Task: structure prediction
Amino acid sequence: MVWWLLSLVFGFFGFVGAQSAGAQHGQMVVQADKAAVMPIGVALTGPLSREVFFTDTPAVRVDDLPAGDYQVHALFQGTVQGSPIALRVEPGRATEVRLPVSDVGGFRFLADSGMCEMSDTWQFVSAAVVVDARSAGLEQRPVPGLSKPASPTCLREVAGLSPGRYQIRVVPPTTLLPPYVVVVNVIRQAWTEVPLTWPAVIVRGRVMAGGAAVRDTVVQFTANAPVSALGGTRFEAARVAEDGTYVAALRAPGRYRPEVTIDLVSRTGWLDVVTADGQPARGAYFYTVPSAVNSTTSDEGRINLATIAPGTALSIRTLHWGVTCHQVTEAPLQRVAVPEATGKLVFVVPDPVPDPTKDPGAARTFRPAPTARLIGAQIAGIPGSTCALEYDDLLKERSHGPDGAEIAVTLPHGTYTLMLADGSTHTVQAPGRAVVK
Result:
């Protein structure tokens, strides 16, 4: 008898506990109004946070929710969330939530076969980044990939976007093509189709400033009216590489204007130029290749590096015939000693020998001067230099000898390598003579 009473008491308290726990939970019934661009589910945040998706109808019931305050977000394709709706779930009751038609639109990406990759099913792998051009700083929102769409097509949808003008950066699924940008408009309660195609035109180039490659910048192409009718006028090139090269993808042939912003005044620093005996080389000439910078050193023998990009090769020539080449580095304070030039090096360029088998009239046709052979040449091996000296930057004395044209330059005593524009090299000595054929 005692055992039965104890069992009855425990069973009664167990029943009360179960009733008490269930009484602390409620339900939520979500219903979305029909629209052209509808949510695919809701995201709940509160005592219990979770995502719930619609199935056949735009409605869903969420059971066994802990009582408390919640925020309900409409969830659109691409995991974009709408504005929150605040509500309270009461214990033992069903709370109804209606999602009204939202003032949003969406993109529908349609990729051709070249912009998708084949696996066991078609897999959409193009990484599209939606950029809201109306917001300050062009805030970027990455669009998550869809590993296995329900249908075997290259279709991707992103909805829940506020109406307005957007930039979409498309990254093709191959390193052979650079990213490109299309500009489209999102319309309220409408789908904007965005075809993802292989670009029609590939432009390759190099950005140079002061004779040196420019990196960490972006080249923009502005198109003319016929091209802009395709959906935008600005197309972003791939970011410039370390060597200054870039690859731009343009969606149509036409006339474009490339634009690039280069921040050369981004640092401060000095290059101290001294003579062979350590004295400031005031008034020394310096210039780059090509002569984008052409000036003289200060009274202290200094060159301001604020507007000279790192990597720039500076040819320096003092008033006492000293010459050298210095490649600018990232260091704020730099120093170069210019050796004294006292050895005369004479380049001999033989005159062309007439061919007696040719028509004598051919002698009257235009021929480049023999000394053109030296145009674009460089001289490597200057003591203390960090780059090859440009032949075109040297002071020259021209004359004509029995063996042909003679060009005399003055260099520090030593052995040098003459590198011609065609890639051939000659070992030369100063002082001395060198025949260049």
User: Anything to note?
Assistant: The helical segments are 2-23, 225-228.
